[in-house]
C-alpha cells in the first residue's frame, strides 16, 4: 500500500487530464517510473505481512503472493490499455467513437480513476471508482494513526521501564495507565498532523527521497538482525511450524497482501509527467512490482520465522525488546549499538507516516470534494475545501479511539484494495473495448502498445474478474470465520476468568 502518497491529488475534479492544469510540471524519463512505483508499492502494508504469514503459514502465503504478483501485473496493464484507448474516445460517454485509429492509440494524456470511470462507464462507474478511492484513503490514514499510536505507547513504556505492561490486543481491557498513554499519544499525534493537514501541501521531493532511503535502510537492518538471531540462537519461540499450511489464516493473508500490493490507482498520476508517448512505461512497472514482491517475501518470511508466536503488528514493535545479546533478543541490558538499532526501527514508521499523513489526507479531501455537487463546489470553494479536509482528517482519529487493531484495519483495507487492484481495472479495459466493439468475447480493437493477445481479450478479462472474485469470496468466508471464532474464544476466556475469580 502506498504510504508515500502522490504529491498531486489522485483525481482532478472533472474531465481534466492529470498532465494539464500545471503546464510547468517537470517531465521525467520512463526509468523514473521505477522508483515511484517502488515507493507506492512498499508502504504501510508490509508491517502486517509477517503476522499474516504466521497465521496462514509461509507456503500458502507465498502462493498468494505469487498469484497477486501475476494478477497485479496483468491488471496494471489493463489500466495502461484503458488509458491508451481513452485518448481516442469522445469525452462524453454518450458519444460513439467514429473511426478506429490504432496509430493514435497511445497514452498522450492521463486521467485518474474517477475520470476513467466517468469516460468509460458514465456516473455509476465514476461513483464506484471514487468511493473505492475514498475508502482506500480512509483505511490508509486509519493505519497511519494506529501504527503511530501503538509505537508512541510502546516507546513511552520503554522509557518508564515496563515495556511489556500494555500489550493487550484490546486497549479497553488495559489498565487506566495504559489507556492514559494510549489516548495521550493519540492527542499528541493529532496536535502534530491535524494542523499540517489543513495547510496546502507543497512539494517535498527532498524529504521523500530521504524518507525512502531511511525506509530501505531500516528494512535492510530488520532483515540482517533477524538472520543473525536465527543463525546464533534460533527463532524466539517455536509455538508453531510456520512452514505448515494453516488454511484458516487464508483470509488474513489475502487481505493483508491485497492492501500491501495495491498500486493500480496511482499509475495514472505516476506516468503523467513521462516524456512522449509513454509506450514503454509497463517495463518499469513490472520491474518495480517484481522488486516489491521480493521485499515482501523477505520481510514476511524472515520475520514470521524469527518471531513466530511473538510476532506483533506492526512488526517494528518486535524491536522494542532488542538487546543485541545472544543473536539480538537475548536477556540482559542493551548493548550500545542495540540502542541505535532499536530506536531506528521503532521511530522509522513514525517519521515516515507523520510526513505522509497530511499529503494523503489532502488527496482524500480532493476525492471527497468530487462527491459534492459540482455547482456547490463552484459557488462555495473555500467552504467545500475545509469541510472535505475535516471529513478526511478526523474520522481516522475517531476510528482509532475505538479500534486500534492493525489486523482488523489491514483486513478492511484489503477488502477495499481488491476493488482498486482487480475489479476496477477489469471493468476499465472491458468497457474500453465495449465502447469500440460492443459486447464481444474475442475482439481486441483498437490495439495499444500494452495489448497482450491472450490476457487482453474480453474473454480472459472476464475469467480474471470472476477468478479474483471467487478468491475474494473465499477469503471473506475465512475472514468472517476467524473473526467469529476469535470473538467466541475471547468471550469464553473472559467468562471463565470472571467465574474463577
UniProtKB/TrEMBL annotation:
Record key words, sorted: Membrane, Transmembrane, Transmembrane helix
Query: What's any one GO cellular component for it?
Result: membrane
The answer, when asked if Membrane is one of the entry's keywords, is yes
Where does it primarily localize?
membrane
Pfam family of this protein, just one?
A: Aa_trans
Entry-linked Gene3D superfamilies: Amino acid/polyamine transporter I
Tell me where it resides: Membrane
Transmembrane: present as a keyword of the record? yes
Q: Where is the Amino acid transporter transmembrane domain?
A: 27-470
Tell me which PANTHER family the record gives.
AMINO ACID TRANSPORTER TRANSMEMBRANE DOMAIN-CONTAINING PROTEIN, TRANSMEMBRANE PROTEIN 104-RELATED
Protein name, as recorded: Amino acid transporter putative
